[in-house]
Design goal:
The complex is a heterodimer of chains A (about 80) and B (about 220).
Chain A (H helix, E strand, L loop, with lengths): L2 H12 L5 H13 L1 H19 L7 H16 L3
Helix pairs in contact in A: 1-3, 2-3
Chain B lengths: L1 H9 L4 H10 L3 H23 L2 H17 L10 H20 L35 H13 L3 H12 L4 H8 L3 H23 L10 H7 L1
Classes of the chains: A mainly alpha (about 80), B mainly alpha (about 220).
Chain lengths: ~80, ~220
């Protein structure tokens, strides 16, 4: 497996949606290619950080205000 | 589209189906439940696209009102949330076009860019690198980093990786093909990784990076 082939499979590797025999090849490649191992680990970490740190959170007071405005107009038939 | 519909059709009945039926029968409180369930996610999508807090507030309200008005047109062969996201994305793009004085903005643009398809920064990261920053510093870094991505990349990343939608649902919500979603997701992930590397890479001889270093490298 080449690095280009590895990168093309990266999403499937991260999402765990590759066949067992491909996974064996992927692991073999990562074992001998430190760069691809770094790309795999840091991409996975990127996703994990964005998932656990919610951006653009809606503060409760704003949420209540917008929610009330939406429901008031729906009740009036928009 | 047949594939998406057949996949959805095989699912257990989604809890939203009953709520949508109640709203159609005139029960506004069922709509209240749907709004409460999805308002945060819709607000985030609108913020990603418009990059403007007031616009995101307006988009969120307009999207829910439009969905309510158009509920009769909702076919039920897609999930309510993917249908709602599609409305919100269209509303967000309209706002963006207004701000950019009519310049065409779409989820399809910027595909010709090759940036980020080949990883260049191959330095390893510090273990748990986010812990070298305070919550607000980290928030700033993550926001600044994702801001620079094309709208289509940001929304695909948000829907697939942050909100956890399937590739098929993301494609349906954005009116894109499954291969187009996959291609955007890979590039979004690689570009974010590349940009975060400058903050998170291992720094020789030091466990903490100073704010001075952050500014110098950004």
């Amino acid at each position: 497996m080449t690095c280009t082939e590895f990168i093309a499979l990266l999403d499937d590797i991260i999402d765990n949606s590759i066949a067992a025999e491909t996974r064996a090849e992927v692991e073999k490649h990562m074992h001998k290619c430190g760069h691809c191992e770094v790309v795999f680990n840091t991409t996975r970490k990127t996703i994990e950080i964005y998932r656990s740190h919610e951006l653009y959170d809606l503060p409760n007071d704003l949420r209540d205000r917008l929610h009330a405005a939406i429901m008031a107009r729906c009740k009036k038939g928009c | 589209m047949t594939t998406i519909q057949s996949i959805v059709g095989q699912d257990e009945q989604h809890p939203d189906v009953a709520l949508v039926a109640q709203v159609r029968a005139g029960d506004v409180s069922a709509y209240d439940t749907l709004v409460r369930k999805y308002e945060r996610q819709i607000f985030r999508i609108a913020q990603h696209i418009t990059q403007n807090r007031e616009d995101a507030e307006d988009v969120m309200q307009d999207a829910f009102l439009k969905a309510y008005e158009k509920l009769e047109q909702f076919q039920g062969n897609s999930k309510f949330y993917t249908w709602l996201v599609r409305i919100a994305v269209n509303e967000s793009l309209m706002r963006l076009r207004k701000r950019r004085t009519g310049r065409m903005v779409s989820i399809d643009e910027d595909l010709e860019t090759e940036e980020g398809t080949v990883p260049r920064d191959l330095a390893d990261w510090a273990p748990d690198p986010e812990q070298n920053y305070t919550q607000s510093e980290l928030g700033e870094i993550l926001e600044k980093t994702i801001k620079g991505l094309p709208p289509g990349f940001k929304v695909v990343f948000e829907l697939r990786d942050v909100q956890g939608l399937s590739t098929e649902d993301t494609a349906e919500a954005l009116g894109l093909s499954v291969p187009a979603v996959k291609s955007r997701l890979l590039r979004a992930r690689l570009q974010l990784r590349e940009r975060l590397s400058r903050y998170f890479r291992k720094k020789p001889g030091s466990r903490r990076s100073s704010p001075r270093e952050v500014r110098a490298e950004s």
